[in-house]
Write a structure and sequence with these properties.
Layout lengths: L2 H4 L7 H11 L4 H10 L4 H9 L18 H13 L9 H4 L1 H7 L2 H13 L4 E5 L15 E5 L2 E9 L9 E7 L13 E7 L8 E5 L9 E11 L3 E2 L5 H37 L1 E2 L2 E2 L4 H29 L5 H26 L10 H9 L8 H12 L7
Helix pairs in contact: 2-5, 5-9, 7-9, 9-10, 9-11, 10-11, 11-12, 11-13
């Protein structure tokens, strides 16, 4: 994809995009291949993003951040992925802001946000999913029992990425038993858990090896004491607070998918122009051209939905429909572009040095996480189209 072609639609936050692209140029494919082979956390990359101020983009200026809208954060993450890098090591620090900024107390903001903005603290772990509840969040079993001036937390979380590299975790737990509430969404609370001060007896983290290098873990809580002052918002209202973070998460993940799709499409078009078989570039064949063109069309349509979802979020709304559609369409577009890129490159697509197989594995995740495609379709059917609840 040439520069002139991309100029037509990359008009939002252009300076930010260019700055991110320059930073990412210092972290080429070999850096990511090495991290992937060694299952290493990309510490140098995360530090560079922090020092440049990108991870503090959503934190208000009063707390040391840049005070930028979600659309700017989406542009940052999109460009990271378009450059062939991966923001999964640190993107939670952006989308957890949706809960903390909208529902945290002033004391909590004063205590944590300046340190996060400066890079002294990391809030990159989001403890929601559990082995037995999966997407049925209201059925989670991790409990927090009030005991004087602290909560005692017991339970287990899974697929909690970056817990080993985060200072704080945003934890969703049940403070009122499910049988004691009128609605399943009641009785859940959000706690800020300090992972640094927890002893091994009370909190343990077990790495999970997955098909992509995302520093994913299981986290076990055994009577862990969390100060009452770390309660975000009101007790029992946590499910509603976490939705703010979930909408932001889906929009930002969708932006990453758009970046991945652009990377795949650009790689495909460049290779199709360069690769010659039977004395002609393979890009001259419609059988090669058309899938790449279709991937581009799908990406552009999804990109518009991502922009719309971010716009509505920045206006203070709750764009549940738009955030879900953005994630659905962008994840599908990214995966379709990944398939096209693999097909275009043929056997070379499987070679590590081309980076395609790594990005291919990374792109597949987002059709499943942070919310699976079928659950989004169920949401649209019920909450947008007014059809009966299917689960």
């Amino acid at each position: 994809m040439n520069h002139e072609l991309t100029m037509n639609y990359e008009v939002n936050h252009r300076d930010i995009r260019e700055s991110v692209a320059r930073l990412c140029a210092d972290f080429p494919g070999e850096y990511w291949r090495r991290c992937d082979r060694e299952r290493a956390y990309p510490q140098a990359f995360v530090s560079a993003l922090t020092e440049a101020g990108f991870l503090g983009a959503l934190i208000p200026e009063a707390y040391g951040g840049s005070g930028l809208p979600l659309s700017a954060a989406a542009a940052i993450l999109e460009e990271i992925h378009r450059a062939g890098c991966n923001a999964a090591a640190c993107h939670a620090q952006m989308y957890t802001m949706g809960t903390l900024l909208r529902h945290g107390s002033e004391a909590q903001k004063q205590k944590y946000l300046p340190g996060i903005a400066a890079g002294r603290l990391r809030l990159q772990a989001f403890g929601v999913t559990e082995p037995d509840s999966g997407a049925d969040t209201t059925s989670l079993r991790t409990t927090a029992r009030r005991e004087g001036d602290c909560y005692r937390v017991n339970g287990q979380k899974i697929w909690t990425s970056r817990a080993e590299y985060s200072d704080q975790m945003l934890l969703l737990c049940r403070t009122t038993p499910l049988k004691a509430v009128g609605k399943k969404t009641d009785g859940l609370s959000v706690l800020l858990v300090d992972l640094r001060g927890a002893g091994e007896k009370n909190l343990s983290v077990r790495p999970l090896r997955t098909m992509m290098n995302h520093s994913t873990t299981e986290v076990f809580f055994d009577d862990l004491a969390v100060p009452v002052e770390n309660l975000v918002g009101e007790e029992g209202r946590g499910f509603h607070y976490i939705l703010s973070g979930m909408n932001a998460e889906r929009i930002l993940i969708a932006a990453e998918c758009i970046g991945d799709a652009k990377w795949f499409i650009e790689k495909s078009a460049a290779y199709a122009n360069r690769r010659s078989v039977f004395n002609r570039p393979i890009g001259r064949n419609q059988g090669v051209q058309f899938p790449i063109a279709r991937a581009y069309a799908d990406m552009r349509a999804a990109e518009l939905m991502v922009h719309e979802a971010a716009r509505l979020y920045d206006r203070g709304g709750r764009p549940g429909e738009e955030a879900n559609l953005a994630k659905l369409l962008a994840a599908d577009a990214s995966w379709a572009a990944a398939e096209v890129c693999m097909e275009t490159h043929g056997g070379f697509g499987f070679a590590e040095e081309y980076d395609i197989e790594r990005k291919y594995r990374e792109a597949r995740l987002y059709r499943t996480a942070p919310i699976p495609t079928n659950l989004i379709l169920s949401y649209i059917a019920e909450h947008v189209l007014g059809m009966p609840r299917s689960y």
